[in-house]
């Protein structure tokens, strides 16, 4: 019994594109050739119309890097870590604070100036300035700065990784769009061939060379291939939409968006693809941002352990203060002048019989007069001005094992960071090995598919001759055509899988992303 193969339509075209999408998933990050500068903070994509000229892969990557929101979020996170670093450096400076209060007291209270109880309604002000400088804290402040420097550098590497991942995603989607467009052209060629075959079948039917069922088979094949064209075009539209979304372009303003299809050599035109995996891994491990970020976070975890251990040490600090107070109940005796009247005091003489007045008198001088008034505001501030300086020493003895627990947790985080760094290297090595295996398999598959296409092309031509001469029915002829179509599709798939995987390996080797 003969078996038939379905045409590149609803049953296998979506599966083919999905399979290629899996094959073209990023195996590792890449570095864009010329990364564009990030846009200003708070700005969105430009409102200007998108250029309608054919887009090259490099232009698509550059545009995506400048407008993709995930990349911009990573840039903002790096800036946030930069501010954290700035704050940790500022922690080495002394802290200075100024305080001022104003209050009213009713009834009995302690006078802030005389420190005596009194019962009155008064207004009081307190002004103070304090400064403190940490002299020693178990090197926690300096270790915090070193850790935040490492975290900031790691966030920069994260930003670079997001740019590389985006570049690979754009390249993958770009090639999927190229493949989808080639499938559209292949199906359109099939429709033209079917129409020509129907025209010949009409002539042969009128001549009585073929039965009417043959013409009906040809018309059925034409309808199927026309449906395949629509399906392939839908797949191309979806691939185009996915590329626009990666580039953060509104499809409504990108009606004329087209890509420039590069001239890509066939895999069988090259020698068997061979890559030194160990050398490629060493190059990638020394250049890829995710590896550098993982190593930086290991160093950051070690600094966190040092910070936690600093809690075992004493804390020595120097502090000083300036203060003054004012109270409305404070008063001062103020000289207001001399008295205007003099007094005569008689002089007495002491005799055996007692004090006897004499004819002499003593005239006293003018007496000073005083007035009790509230002490003026600025006079009190000057009179009550105080200064203080002190050294403080804090020695941790027992704090619920908080320091010890913190050190143990920091050590666990340090080991976890080391494992994550090792895992990042393992993932990188596996990605390189998988990309190489896929590239080698795709090259071999392309060579086999090319031989199959050549053989089925001869078979299809022979079937067409036999069909035109009435020696082959329409069903068998369509089977020959479908076999050829399926082989051509496999050839295209293996070609673009090889191209992408080879580009991935070249990026691991530090080469630019170009087609």
Task: Record keyword descriptors for this entry.
515 residues; alpha+beta; 4-stranded antiparallel β-sheet; two-stranded antiparallel sheet
Description of the structure:
This protein has 515 residues and is an alpha+beta fold. Helix content is 56%, strand content 17%. It contains 10 helices and 10 strands. It has helices at 13-23, 57-67, 69-90, 140-206, 212-246, 277-287, 289-309, 377-383, 402-468, 474-508; strands at residues 95-105, 108-110, 117-119, 122-136, 315-327, 331-338, 344-351, 354-363, 368-374, 386-394. It has a 4-stranded antiparallel β-sheet, covered by helices on one side. It has a two-stranded antiparallel sheet with strand order 2-3. It has a two-stranded antiparallel sheet with strand order 6-9. Strand 7 (344-351) and strand 8 (354-363) form a beta hairpin. Helix 2 crosses helix 4. It is elongated, with a radius of gyration of 46 Å. The model is unreliable at 1-48 (pLDDT under 50).
Question: What's the arrangement of secondary structure elements?
Answer:
Blueprint: H1 13-23, H2 57-67, H3 69-90, E1 95-105, E2 108-110, E3 117-119, E4 122-136, H4 140-206, H5 212-246, H6 277-287, H7 289-309, E5 315-327, E6 331-338, E7 344-351, E8 354-363, E9 368-374, H8 377-383, E10 386-394, H9 402-468, H10 474-508
Antiparallel strand pairs: 1-4, 2-3, 4-5, 5-10, 6-9, 7-8
Helix pairs in contact: 1-10, 2-4, 3-4, 4-5, 4-7, 4-10, 6-9, 7-9, 9-10
């Amino acid at each position: 019994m003969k078996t038939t193969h379905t045409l590149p339509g609803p049953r296998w075209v979506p599966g083919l594109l999905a399979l290629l999408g899996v094959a073209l998933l990023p195996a590792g990050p890449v570095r864009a050739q010329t990364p564009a500068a990030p846009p200003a903070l708070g700005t969105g994509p430009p409102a200007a119309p998108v250029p309608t000229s054919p887009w090259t892969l490099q232009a698509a990557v550059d545009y995506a890097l400048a407008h993709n929101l995930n990349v911009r979020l990573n840039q903002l996170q790096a800036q946030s870590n930069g501010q954290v670093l700035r704050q940790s450096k500022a922690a080495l400076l002394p802290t200075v604070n100024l305080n001022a209060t104003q209050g009213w007291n009713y009834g009995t209270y302690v006078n802030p100036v005389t420190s005596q109880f009194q019962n009155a309604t008064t207004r009081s002000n307190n002004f103070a300035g304090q400064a403190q400088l940490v002299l020693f804290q178990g090197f926690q402040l300096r270790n915090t700065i070193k850790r935040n420097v490492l975290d900031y550098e790691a966030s920069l590497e994260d930003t670079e990784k997001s740019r590389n991942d985006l570049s690979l995603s754009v390249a993958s989607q770009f090639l999927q769009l190229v493949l989808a467009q080639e499938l559209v052209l292949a199906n359109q060629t099939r429709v033209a061939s079917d129409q020509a075959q129907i025209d010949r079948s009409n002539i042969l039917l009128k001549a009585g060379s073929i039965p009417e069922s043959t013409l009906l088979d040809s018309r059925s094949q034409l309808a199927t291939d026309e449906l395949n064209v629509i399906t392939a075009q839908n797949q191309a539209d979806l691939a185009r939409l996915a590329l626009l979304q990666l580039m953060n372009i509104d499809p409504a303003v990108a009606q004329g968006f087209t890509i420039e299809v590069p001239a890509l050599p066939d895999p069988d035109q090259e020698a068997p693809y061979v890559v030194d995996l160990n050398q490629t891994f060493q190059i990638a491990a020394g250049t890829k941002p995710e590896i550098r970020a993982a190593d930086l976070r290991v160093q950051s975890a070690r600094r966190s352990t040092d910070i936690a251990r600093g809690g075992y040490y004493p804390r020595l600090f120097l502090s000083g203060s300036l203060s003054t107070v004012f109270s409305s109940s404070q008063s001062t005796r103020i000289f207001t002048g001399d008295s205007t009247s003099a007094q005569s005091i008689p002089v007495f003489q002491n005799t055996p019989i007692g004090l006897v007045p004499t004819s002499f008198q003593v005239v006293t001088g003018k007496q000073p007069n005083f007035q009790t008034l509230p002490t003026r505001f600025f006079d009190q501030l000057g009179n009550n001005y105080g200064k203080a300086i002190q050294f403080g020493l804090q020695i941790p003895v027992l704090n619920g094992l908080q320091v010890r627990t913190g050190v143990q947790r920091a050590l666990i985080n340090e080991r976890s960071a080391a494992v994550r760094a090792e895992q990042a290297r393992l993932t990188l090595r596996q990605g390189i090995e998988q990309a190489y295996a896929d590239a080698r398999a795709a090259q071999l598959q392309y060579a086999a598919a090319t031989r199959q296409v050549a053989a089925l092309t001869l078979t299809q031509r022979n079937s067409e001759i036999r069909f035109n001469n009435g020696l082959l029915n329409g069903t068998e002829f369509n089977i020959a055509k479908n076999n050829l179509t399926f082989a051509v599709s496999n050839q295209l798939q293996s070609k673009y899988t090889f191209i992408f995987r080879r580009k991935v390996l070249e990026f691991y080797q530090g080469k630019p992303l170009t087609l």
